[in-house]
Amino acid sequence: MEIKRAVTNKRAVFLMFLFITVLLIMFGRMTYIQLTKEVRGHDLQEMAAQKYDRSQVLESSRGSILDRHGSVLAEDVPAYNVVAVLSPNQGENQFVEDAAATAEALAPFVGMDQLQLENQIQSGIDNGRYQIELGAGSRNLTYNQKTQVSELELPGIMIEETSRRYYPKQTFASHVIGQQSILEGVNHMGLEGRLNDDLESVDGHIEYSSLHRGLTAATDRITMPEDGADVYTTIDTNIQAALEQAMAQVEEEYAPEKMTAIAADPRTGEILAMSNRPSFNPNQYGEIENYLNYAVQDAVEPGSTLKMFTVAAAIEEGVFDTERTFKSGKYEIDLHSNPVNDVNPDGWGEISYEEGFQRSSNVLVSKLVLEDLGIESFYSYLNDFGFGERTGVDLDQESTGRVEPGRRSDAARTSFGQNSTVTPIQMIQAATAIANDGVMMKPYIVKEVKDSAGKTLRQGESEVVGEPISASTAQQTRELLRGVVDGEFGTGKKYNLQGLDVAGKTGTAQIAEGGEYLRGHGQHLYSFMGMAPYEDPKVVLYVSVTKPKLSEGDSGNDPVSLIFNAVMQRSMSYMDLEPSDEELIEEAEKQGIEMPDLVGEHPTNLAGLNEEQVVVIGDGSTIEKQQPQADAKLLNGERVVVKTDGNTFALPDMTGWSYRDVLKVAESLDLELTPNGSGFVTKQDPPAGTDVSPGESIKIEFGSRMELESMQVDNESEPIDEEVAEETEDEAESDE
Fold first, then answer.
1. How open is the CA angle 172-177-181, to the nearest 5 degrees?
2. Which of 201, 304, 360, 668 is catalytic?
3. Could you read off the pLDDT of 330-363 as tens digits, one per residue?
4. Fewer CB within 10 A of the end CB, N or C, for the chain?
5. DSSP bridge partners of 466
């Protein structure tokens, strides 16, 4: 019995020690796991986070770029990406089973060769991929493209919603607005790049822990998204649209090597329009032929347009007498230099200074600089006018140009626009001094930057950068420039627009290539620097056309005047019709009218607006866009256009509308507007009632009031809107 008890005790002790050992091992293992948080190389925290922790991105929007009146030039819009789910774990009809059939149906919609797409999908299947993207053509689809892909009902083909940068006006001030790059490491262009820090947004996110049965832990963390700031430019859509249309016409008819044009308000320095050719549509990535903004980056010999500043300097120094005479034709500089010749080397005999300026005599300005004004004084005035230095306009990569001081021959040739180089933006800045009674204004294009809450972060301001000449000199210079356009011997008669009193100077600059000047018809840079009305200019406009294809009977003034005249007519009629901001505010304050915020409202809820003045587009139940924008100053009876969230958008009947109201429709529907003429709408294509989609083009014909009334009598249509008639009276009379 004692032996059995001893054996039992030994077993008990052994089991006790074994149990303790196991407990110690388990405790040690637990301690180890608690300290290292790893099991067999697997991070337990990471596994738990993957199972329970959830994170969701709260998307933000990049700031918009707008014109001076709030018309959108660049904005973020919804976009869609197509992806292919390849994993059978998704369930029946939720993954791609047949790569060949899928590629055959989908290839036309993602811009990819069918066989290439099939191979890409099959490779993903063979490699056990869960899902794959389908190349660049499958990204940033429009709503219509997304709908077309959805209607294919292809198993495993999924559509993800995202956003893309959209430029609703297509080829429109493209080098100014620029383009947001979609490529990693490639900088944005234009204002998109220069003001990226303002425009850029920051996505937010929400983090939470998911418990069983869909419950969430109370440790949620939310970081709110930060939308980018909106940039308001000084660009005027009305003037810019006229410029783009005219340049497109010249590009088609004359196929020049390049063109550039700038319109500005000389009283403030605000750039109203700026364009170049070749240009580009920023919606079409990778299709840019010309990256240079010639208006600020291209330094060229200006030709005879520079004579206006040479003569202004001479007037200021009291050495320009309109009645004084000189011998035209040829002028000897010195024994070591070639003589200066007029365009007519035989000359026009002994003529007055005034006639010499009208005829654009090289001899006249050379004589003024070398004999009357003096070389040192001449270069001092060029410096005062800002040549040879950057203007500081808020656009990237501005060139300085080069004023070439030196020998007598250098000064003589600089006086009539050879030898030295300038930029178009320098020409505009210098011209403001002549247009603005001697006060030179710095050009600028960013009017205001506002954050997403509407708070102004930065305000563009007019800045005086010099007074190179007196008011009386500026007035005398404008009178001489007027003579160039309407005088007996003027070279600028093609720019003599009835009722606008244009003043300006023509230019025909030689182009140096390979160390020598080109020769031949059309092998020049043709330009015009003009302003109107000459007594008190509201607009200065510079246009240059390089190496146009001219027929035998054409002159270099033909393509330049086609652009200048169209833009100046539109500018003057529009600026006469459109009240200034101050006048709008004053009028609105008198009437107590302010545009309400209708976005998000039902189309029948017009916040006190008269139903007859509101045009509703779309078959939806919620207003998505409105023109004018909320808080804008609204004139009594002004037409308001609202777009709903519907699926179809039919064009309204715009017969009798003004250009300004047509723009409201184009901007609301993101349509490309092609206007022709001025006054009232007489014809629209597509016709009223036609459903349109974003990016489509509409052509609008404008005519005089008489033409419209005649058409309405013939068609027994409704009478003209009286307010529209009053707004466009001057424009219509000009057409008649």
1. 115
2. 304
3. 999 988 889 999 999 899 999 999 999 999 999 9
4. N
5. 440
